Structure formats: C-alpha cells, structure tokens
Inverse folding.
C-alpha cells in the first residue's frame, strides 16, 4: 500500500485539535515535531538519552504530520482536513502559518518514520509500552512491559483512546477471564489483557495487516498461547460469552455492534468502548443502554471519551 504524508506547520495551541481532525480523517497516527522536544529532559524518566536530529524540527511553531493511505478518497480527505483546520480560527484557535504539504512515502519509509518518534512510554499504573528496537530497563519490579512493533497497523499504544482502554482493562480484567478485543490493530489491548491474567483472549480485526501485526506482537510478548488473532468484521458470526469486550474503534463503528457486544457478554461482564469523540458520547451511551447494559464509568482524555458499561 502507498502512503501519503500530510504535514501541517502550525502552533502549539493547535496540536490537539489538528490531531483530532487527522484522526477523524482516518490517519493511523500523528507525529508532532516540536522544537521543545530537543530541550526536553528524558533521561530521568527512562534512563536513556534520545538522539533527536534538530534538522527535523521547525525553528518556530510545530509540525504535525500524519500518514494517510493513498486511495481514491485521498483528494477529498485532504480538502476536508484543510477546511476543518481553517475552521479552527472560528473557535479562536491560532493556527499559525498553516502550511499544509503533501508528499508520498512508501511502506518502508512510513515504518521507519515511526521509529524516530516512538519511545518507551509509561501509560498507566502498571504498563509501559516499549518499541521493540529500544533497550528498556524496568523502573519498578511490578511494571508490566508491552513490547510493540506497530508496523503498518494502528496501535503504538500511546494514543489517548488506547491508554484509556488499558486503564479500563486494569480495572475490569480478573485472573482467568475471557476477553474479546474488537479492532485489535497492533494487538496492544489483547496483550495487556493477557498480561493482566486473562486466560483466553480473542483478538479480531478486519484488516489483514493488523491481523499479521497483532500475531507478531503477541509472539513477541509471549502471550500467543493465550491470544488468538482472527480476521473478522466486528463481532459478526460470533456467539461467545466473554467477561470483557473491549473495542477502540470510532463511535460510528461502535454504534454498529453495541447489541452484538452485549450478546457476547456474560452476566456481570464489561464492555469497554473507546475511540469516541465528545460530540458522539451521548449517542454511544444511548445505544449501549438500549442494548441492555448500564454505564459504570465515563473516562475522558484529550477530548476523547471511553465508556465502561456492565451487563447486569
Ligand atoms: C483505532 S484502531 C485500535 C487499535 C488498537 N486496538 C488500539 O487500541 O490501539 C481500530 C482498529 O479497528 C479495526 N477495524 C475497523 N473497522 C473494523 C471492523 N469492521 N471489524 C474489525 N476491525 C475493524 C481497524 O483495522 C483498526 O486496526
């Protein structure tokens, strides 16, 4: 697959809304080139010094980059992104230079581009995500480490929607549980569930690239005996009884399978739904309640919402 890199020279203030616009437009990940990164102390946190190239960073403002698949919608998508960014001015957000450039990258370049910006990150009480090419020494003896090579699949583990899912899994998964992960991407949530003590995890994704990446990552983290990865459209044809169903997919997609999520849960089981923008929160909550579940908790991180619901 060919990928296109969209690069936006903007301001610090606009990073978050622009990242949201890019995610909404289907970008698999967003990279921020902020000159502040060059100054930042990283040694204390991870015991390592990172080699960053000043040539990659703008002198002023920040550059937000994202990767979009080259397909027949690309032109429209880019126009929508440009329009949405320009609209930010109406909300008094300073978009700075607002220089938007598009360039094509091939698969290999895309994968290596990620590696430059992807460092170990402690994302919850228990978990630290470490890219496979980093040599990381745990800070605490009870720290759980997920090694990841996201490859071309979504899921570096550090996106707010993923972080909230992992935090929700920490609260809901018990030893011996059966967990279903809908839209597994790199497999990060399935790996986390297995490390939290689940005895069986079913990872599902429609995208073959994700299925392969998830299989690779489950082996890398030595949880492949617990996690099975299958190509599947949402929960279609599934008649299972899980303790936890977790899904980090956009609200529009969650709305398509809230009934199936409820059907595939045991009594007392949890549905963790993430990837929801604020504006869609109520619609998703209504659908979850309509499916017979009760809302236990609503989490919020950087404008993203995750919901923990229970089957009573
Ligand atoms: C936002 S990513 C989440 C990846 C990972 N679970 C995480 O939390 O980082 C959403 C994933 O859902 C998958 N997906 C989208 N539509 C799907 C569908 N209809 N059935 C199964 N998977 C789907 C995508 O391929 C992608 O890997």
């Amino acid at each position: 697959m060919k990928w296109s890199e969209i690069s936006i020279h903007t301001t610090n203030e606009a990073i978050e809304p622009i990242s949201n616009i890019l995610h909404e437009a289907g970008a698999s990940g967003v990279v921020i080139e902020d000159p502040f990164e060059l100054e930042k102390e990283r040694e204390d946190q991870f015991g390592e010094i990172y080699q960053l190239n000043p040539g990659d960073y703008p002198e002023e403002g920040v550059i937000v980059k994202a990767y979009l698949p080259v397909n027949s919608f690309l032109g429209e998508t880019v126009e929508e992104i440009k329009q949405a960014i320009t609209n930010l001015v109406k909300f008094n957000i300073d978009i700075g230079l607002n220089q938007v450039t598009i360039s094509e990258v091939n698969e290999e370049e895309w994968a290596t581009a990620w590696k430059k910006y992807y460092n170990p990150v402690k994302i919850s009480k228990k978990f630290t995500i470490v890219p496979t090419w980093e040599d990381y020494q745990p800070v605490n003896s009870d720290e759980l480490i997920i090694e990841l090579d996201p490859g071309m699949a979504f899921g570096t583990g550090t996106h707010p929607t993923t972080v909230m899912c992992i935090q929700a899994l920490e609260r809901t998964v018990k030893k011996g549980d059966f967990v279903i992960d809908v839209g597994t991407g790199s497999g990060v949530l399935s790996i986390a569930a297995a490390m939290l003590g689940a005895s069986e995890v079913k990872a599902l994704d429609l995208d073959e690239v994700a299925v392969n990446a998830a299989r690779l990552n489950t082996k890398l983290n030595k949880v492949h005996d617990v996690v099975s990865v299958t190509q599947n459209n949402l929960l279609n044809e599934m008649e299972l009884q899980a303790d936890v169903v977790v899904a980090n997919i956009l609200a529009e997609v969650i709305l398509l399978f809230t009934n199936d999520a409820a059907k595939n849960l045991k009594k007392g089981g949890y549905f963790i739904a993430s990837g929801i923008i604020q504006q869609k929160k109520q619609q998703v909550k209504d659908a979850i309640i309509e499916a017979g579940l009760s809302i236990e908790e609503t989490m919020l991180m950087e404008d993203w919402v995750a919901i923990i619901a229970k089957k009573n």
User: Anything to note?
Assistant: The chain is about 30% helix and 30% strand. The chain has two domains: 3-117, 121-310. Confidence is low (pLDDT under 50) at residues 38-52.
